[in-house]
Amino acid sequence: MYESLATQGRTSVHTGLAGIDSARLKKLRSSHLKECFNLIDEMRHKLEFVARIKGVSFIDDAASRSVMSTWYALETIEGKTIWIANGNPTNSSKANELKRLRTLVEQKVQTIITIGDSTLYEQVFGSDKLKIVAANSMNEAVTKAFYSCTENMKVLFSPALENGISYETQGDSFKHEVNEL
């Protein structure tokens, strides 16, 4: 059972552990619990590994449409990261939310690439150490991310902010562009 848990990812394991607590309260047998864990499937577009190209890992987290979801994604990722996010015009309430990510961004993120306007990110995260770049499309964002990476880096697409396009559409677009590299 533990081997299959290790391959399912942190989010599924947390969900499963909560399920174990519930199942124990209902007095289910261990064999039934094992079956349940084997049925857990990763949520599409939630910390989903897409590909490893020339030593660079691409991770689709398009389902993260809130700052706290993106916080969790950044907290989970190990190593230096290029973060692709949804751009957004200047909005003071969103700026206050994004400030919650400042420590993680300083620790883990080398470059932020926004799809659309990067002004908000420049206001919140602007520093000499962090590069912030705007892209006009997912294709441009993925290409810029790939050519900015060194081996063993991660490229994380985690929007953090809504932009009017469904997370499925953006996640599928991210995967397509990665697979075109």
Briefly say what this structure is.
The chain has helices at 2-6, 10-25, 30-39, 67-76, 92-98, 102-108, 119-125, 138-148, 167-180; strands at 48-53, 56-60, 81-86, 109-115, 131-135, 154-157. With 181 residues, it is of the alpha/beta class.
Which terms would index this structure?
6 strands, single chain, globular, Protein-Tyrosine Phosphatase, Chain A, 2 domains, 6-stranded mixed sheet, alpha/beta
What does this structure look like?
Helices cover 48% and strands 18% of the residues. With 181 residues, it is an alpha/beta fold. The protein has 2 domains: 2-39, no CATH class; 48-180, Mur ligase, C-terminal domain (Protein-Tyrosine Phosphatase, Chain A), CATH 3.90.190.20. Helix 5 (92-98) packs across helix 7 and helix 8 (138-148) crosses helix 9. The model is unreliable at 1-8 (pLDDT under 50).
List the helices and strands and how they pair.
Layout: H1 2-6, H2 10-25, H3 30-39, E1 48-53, E2 56-60, H4 67-76, E3 81-86, H5 92-98, H6 102-108, E4 109-115, H7 119-125, E5 131-135, H8 138-148, E6 154-157, H9 167-180
Parallel strand pairs: 2-6, 3-4, 3-6, 4-5
Antiparallel strand pairs: 1-2
Helix pairs in contact: 5-7, 8-9
Structural class: alpha/beta
Q: CA-to-CA gap between the ends?
A: 36 Å
Instruction: Give the name of the CATH superfamily of the largest domain.
Output: Mur ligase, C-terminal domain
Overall body shape: globular
Mean pLDDT: 81
Q: What's the Cα radius of gyration?
A: 18 Å
- The percent range for helix content is 40-55%
Question: Can you list the strand order of the major beta sheet?
Answer: 1-2-6-3-4-5
State the domain count. Answer: 2
Order of helices and strands: HHHEEHEHHEHEHEH
Q: In CATH's first tier, which class of the largest domain applies?
A: Alpha Beta
**Beta-strand residue percentage:** 15-25%
Low-confidence stretches: 1-8
**What is the number of helices?**
9
CATH topology name of the largest domain: Protein-Tyrosine Phosphatase, Chain A
The major β-sheet equals:
6 strands, mixed
Quickly give the CATH architecture of the largest domain.
Alpha-Beta Complex
Number of strands: 6
